[in-house]
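> call design_seq(struct)
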C-alpha cells in the first residue's frame, strides 16, 4: 500500500477507490500575461500533490490534508456553493462545485509542493482533485475543460483572480518539455527544454518573503490591463503591438502605459524564448529571462527587495539568467545556471540574504516533469 493509501485508511477507516496526482509549476517566461490572453512557457516540477478518493453512499464530503494535521473537514455536498465559509479545503470544495459533483466523497490530500512559495500548490491541489473526480465519477472532461473548471474554482469559489496558466500546466505538462500555452484558446505545444544535457540546471529560490496574491496588488495589475483594453477598444492586450501602444499614449495614463508595455514586450519575449530553445541557444534564453525580470520589476512593479536580491546574487555568481516568478511581492525566483555552479550560486544567494537581514531562502532544483495523472485505481 502506498503512503497516501495508508493515510487514507488511517483517516477514514477504509481503503480509497483511487489515487491521482498533479504537480506544481515554474514558469520559465511569460509572467502576468495569462490574463491578457498571452503566451506563457511554464513547466511542471517533480513535486506534486496526491489525492486519494473514495465514493460514499450519501451526500457527505469529508476532506483531510496531511499538511493540515489530517483533521477531517465535513460538509454536505448540497451546501458546497461559493460563499460557504472555510479555510484551505475551499480549494478542493471549489473544484467539486465547479465540476458539478453531486455525490458524497472522502478525500485525503498529501501535498509535496511547498505551500505559498509561488510554485502553485493551489493549482496542484485543485488539479489533483479534479483528476480524481473526473475518474471517480466518470465525468469525461478533457484537459482544457478541467483547466477552465479548476480556474473557475479558484476564481469564483476561493476568490483568487488567478489566470489559466497554473491549472493548464499542472494538467497538460509532459516530461522533458516546457509547455507553450496560448492563453487565448488554450492550445498548447511542447517545447523541448532539455537543460540537463547542456550541463545546466534550473535553480528555484523560495525567498520565503510574504506571498500576497490576495492582497490587492495582483487585482490592481489586472485592473490596469483591463482599463487599457477598454480605453483602446480592443479585446485583449494580445492584440496590441508596441507601435500601437506608443501611438495610443494620449488615451491612457502613465501607469496603464507601463503595465501594458510589460504585457506586450513579455508576449514577444516568450515567442523569442521558444525560438532560442528550438536551437538550444541558452545564452539567449538567459538574456530573455533577465529582460523579463527587469520589466516585472520596473514596469509592472511586482518584485520586492528579496526577489531582486536573489536575482542579482544569482547573476553575480554567473547565472545565465534569473527572474522572479509567479504573482510577485515575494515567493520564488528562478535562475538558469551551470549545474556545476549550483552550490556556489546557493552560497552566494544565502550570503546576500543574510547580509541584508532577510530570512534564509529555500532552494529547489527541478527538471521538467509530467502533468496530472491517475496513479492507481482499485
Ligand atoms: P501557491 O499556489 O503559490 O502555493 P497560494 O496562496 O495560491 O500559493 O495557495 C496556497 C494555499 O493553498 C494554502 O494556503 C492552502 O490553503 C492551499 N493548499 C495547497 N496545498 C495544500 C495542501 N496540501 N493541504 C492543504 N491546503 C493546501
Ligand atoms: Mg496559487
Amino acid at each position: 500500500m502506498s503512503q497516501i493509501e495508508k493515510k487514507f485508511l488511517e483517516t477514514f477507516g477504509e481503503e480509497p477507490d483511487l489515487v491521482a496526482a498533479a504537480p506544481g509549476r515554474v514558469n520559465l517566461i511569460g509572467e502576468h500575461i495569462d490574463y491578457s490572453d498571452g503566451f506563457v512557457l511554464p513547466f511542471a516540477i517533480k513535486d506534486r500533490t496526491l489525492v486519494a478518493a473514495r465514493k460514499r453512499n450519501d451526500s457527505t464530503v469529508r476532506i483531510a490534508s496531511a499538511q493540515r494535521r489530517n483533521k477531517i473537514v465535513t460538509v454536505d455536498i448540497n451546501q458546497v456553493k461559493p460563499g460557504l465559509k472555510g479555510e484551505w479545503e475551499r480549494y478542493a470544495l471549489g473544484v467539486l462545485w465547479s465540476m458539478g459533483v453531486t455525490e458524497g466523497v472522502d478525500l485525503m490530500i498529501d501535498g509535496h509542493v511547498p505551500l505559498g512559495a509561488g510554485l502553485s500548490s493551489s493549482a496542484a491541489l485543485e488539479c489533483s482533485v479534479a483528476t480524481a473526480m473526473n475518474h471517480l465519477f466518470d465525468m469525461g472532461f478533457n484537459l482544457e475543460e478541467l483547466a477552465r473548471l479548476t480556474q473557475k474554482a479558484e476564481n469564483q469559489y476561493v476568490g483568487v483572480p488567478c489566470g489559466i496558466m497554473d491549472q493548464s500546466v499542472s494538467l497538460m505538462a509532459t516530461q522533458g518539455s516546457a509547455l507553450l500555452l496560448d492563453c487565448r484558446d488554450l492550445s498548447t505545444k511542447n517545447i523541448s527544454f532539455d537543460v540537463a544535457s547542456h550541463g545546466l540546471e534550473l535553480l528555484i529560490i523560495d525567498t520565503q518573503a510574504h506571498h500576497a496574491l490576495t492582497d490587492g496588488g495582483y487585482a490592481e495589475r489586472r485592473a490596469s490591463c483591463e482599463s487599457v483594453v477598454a480605453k483602446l477598444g480592443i479585446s485583449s492586450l494580445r492584440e496590441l503591438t508596441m507601435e500601437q501602444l506608443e501611438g495610443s499614449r494620449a488615451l491612457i495614463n502613465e501607469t496603464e502605459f507601463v503595465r501594458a508595455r510589460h504585457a506586450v514586450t513579455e508576449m514577444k519575449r516568450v515567442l523569442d524564448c521558444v525560438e532560442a530553445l528550438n536551437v538550444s541557444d541558452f545564452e539567449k534564453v538567459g538574456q530573455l529571462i533577465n529582460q523579463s525580470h527587469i520589466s516585472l520589476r520596473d514596469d509592472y512593479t511586482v518584485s520586492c527587495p528579496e526577489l531582486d536580491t536573489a536575482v542579482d546574487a544569482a547573476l553575480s555568481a554567473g547565472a545565465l539568467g534569473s527572474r522572479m516568478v509567479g504573482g510577485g511581492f515575494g515567493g520564488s525566483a528562478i535562475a538558469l545556471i551551470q549545474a556545476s555552479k549550483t552550490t556556489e550560486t546557493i552560497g552566494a544567494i544565502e550570503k546576500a540574504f543574510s547580509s541584508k537581514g532577510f530570512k534564509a531562502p529555500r532552494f529547489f532544483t527541478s527538471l521538467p516533469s509530467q502533468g496530472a495523472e491517475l496513479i492507481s485505481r482499485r
